[in-house]
Each structure stands twice: as structure tokens, then as C-alpha cells.
Amino acid sequence: MSGASIDSAEAVFAPVRSQTAFEETVDRLGTAIKLGLLPPGSRLPAERELCSMLGIARSTLRQALTALAQSGHLHAVRGRGGGTFVADRLPPVDPPSPELVAEWRDVCDWRLAVELGVAVIAAERASAAALEPLEETLAELDDLLEDFPAYRQLDVRFHIGLAETTGSARLVTAATEAQGAMTDLIHYIAHPPEVLAWSNQQHRQLLLAVSRGDADAAARHIAEHLHGTEHVLAGLLPDPR
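RE: above sequence
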């Protein structure tokens, strides 16, 4: 890999946590590209080597590479001398406002606090009848992996719908406001079908925990889901400079 020191390479390609491996890989590579640790035009190690270095499955790596390619950070070259390369120029997207950059982690923290509470209380209170519509929503989301705007609408509906199962009007309002605050941030995340499928798998794990009344598992799954979003934002949010 050209242009990166050994120490930098070790930092970029150190093993990631298994619970959020896809998201942390996007974070690690995207941040390294923005910081110049992976210079424009540099070639990434081969997939097998990357998987070994990061301690992840090839399917997980390919999800992350797909997201970074869709966002314009990487591109693939086929044939002799091919491989996965850092883009010569970062994607030409509008930079986020200084306010958005200053506040995005606070927005994520707020959402985490609200939705952690929702997940725990839903696990304690939600009836089977109240959860049935959410099962239907997840099935619909599986059919929208190629249509992100439609997927996002139902994704919001799922999270607010989970708040509704608590029977708390204040929690529904808080969940709605948190989703609204995330709207501008979500714009900066790549959404290939593989990423949306993984997100919906996390939804299913969360809903299963809630249906079983397992508040600890529900809290763990929603935390992993939302921390994953934060990792992807850290990797893909453009530098405001």
C-alpha cells in the first residue's frame, strides 16, 4: 500500500469489534481517507489480507467497501493491476454546515438516550398485538432495499412505532423529534442494498428482544444499531473545510 507509514497502516487496519464490524470498518477506512492516512490513488490490501488484518468476514468487508464505493471514497479496478483504490478526489458533495458538524455527535447522543429508553420500556410493556404492525413493517422494508427514500420513510415509522408500543405520548414525541434531527445527517450515509439489509436485520434482533420482554437484550441491540450509524457518519461525513 503506497503513501502510508507502517504505524498509520497498523492503526487503520487493526482488528475491529465484531458487534459493529461493518460500521466500524466504514468509520476506520473513511476517516483514514479524510485524514490522508490512505492517500488519493493508493491501493488497499487484497480482500483476504484486509479480512485477516481487521478480523472480519469477507461478506462484512464487501459491505463496507460497497458503501465507501457508493459514497465516492473508493473505486474498484478490474484486471491485471486491479484492486480497490482510494478515489483521486473525495466525492463532490455539499459540505455540512459548521453547525451540523458541531452538533452531530450531540444529536446521536440524544437519539441514543431516547431510543434506549424506548427499547427498555417497550420490552416491559408492549403487547403482542401492538408489535404485530412492526413485524409487517420489517417485511415491507425487505422489499425496499433498492429504494432508499421509501426505505427511510418506513425506517422512521418503525422507530416511532416502537415508541408507540410503550403507551407514552411523551416518548413518541421525543422519538419523532430525534428522528427529525437525524434527517440531515442521514443524507451523508451511503445506502447500498447490503447496508439496508444489515440495518433491517438489526431491527429484527431488536424487535425479537422486545417481544420476549428482554429489556437488557433490547437495550444492547438498539445501542449497537445506533452506534453503528454513528460509526458510518464518522467515516463518511465530509470535512467542512
